[in-house]
Specification:
This protein is of the alpha/beta class. The chain has helices spanning about 30-35, 55-65, 80-85, 100-110, 135-140, 150-165, 170-180, 185-205, 210-220; strands spanning about 45-50, 70-75, 90, 115-120, 145. It folds into two domains: about 20-145, P-loop containing nucleotide triphosphate hydrolases (Rossmann fold, 3-Layer(aba) Sandwich), CATH 3.40.50.300; about 150-220. About 45% of the residues lie in helices and about 10% in strands.
């Protein structure tokens, strides 16, 4: 029936965190250099800080593969004995930690065992709201490498990759149109491409400028 919408199926889509798929630009060059410098780090505890969707998880995944690291989420820390069984350790979203005593104990355990540790967070530790003085002192010892907001060119390159990952055919002019109007955030780019994929599937059509404009206007209204 003309004009009917299909019910899109929630098909799983996992982004590639391969080293060759990381989009290097000036905004993230220092962070990538830190990962590539492994194992010649300036300190056993290092931090990556950047906004949501800035590539921290991608960089942490690259490091974890190269270093043989165990990865933990700051919201769900594991037993230190278990967490330090690898050659290195990653704590993703360390600024979301709920168990400050647990994180302090984990960092001490990793240090005593000589297990290099990478923390990822949205901001530097002084801005986490840490209530445990000993933990804050330990976190302040970690050199922090920041990831700046993405350049317009990075947003455009990310959109091209995100559309390609989902096997969506999109004209370069449409990609440029979206990049000029989208919030400067890789998370926003990922969310928009996901929404466009769902909308195109629901309408049974290719991604169009009208679809993109409607979604972008909806974001601005929200």
């Amino acid at each position: 029936m003309s004009g009917s919408r299909q019910l899109p199926l929630p098909l799983p889509h996992e982004p590639s965190f391969a080293r060759e798929d990381f989009l290097k630009f000036p905004s993230n060059a220092a962070a990538l250099a830190l990962i590539d410098a492994w194992p010649n780090w300036p300190a056993p505890l290092m931090g990556l800080a950047g906004p949501e969707g800035s590539g921290k998880s991608h960089l942490a995944a690259i490091f974890a593969r190269e270093a043989g690291a165990v990865r933990l989420d700051g919201r769900a820390l594991a037993d230190p004995e278990e967490a330090t069984r690898g050659r290195a350790l990653v704590v993703d979203d360390a600024d979301a930690v709920r168990d400050e005593a647990g994180l302090f104990h984990l960092l001490n355990f990793a240090r005593s065992r000589g297990v290099p540790t990478l923390l990822t967070a949205r901001k530097a530790p002084d801005l986490w709201g840490v209530a445990t003085p000993d933990l804050l002192s330990r976190l302040r010892l970690a050199p922090i490498v920041g990831i700046a907001p993405p350049e317009p060119e990075l947003i455009e390159a990310a959109l091209v990759k995100l559309f390609a990952d989902r096997q969506l055919s999109v004209e370069p002019q449409l990609v440029a149109y979206i990049a000029r109007r989208l919030e400067r955030s890789l998370g926003a780019a990922r969310a928009l491409v996901e929404a466009l994929d769902a909308e195109a599937l629901a309408q049974g059509r290719k991604v169009t400028r009208a679809m993109a404009a409607a979604l972008l206007q909806g974001d601005e209204a929200g």
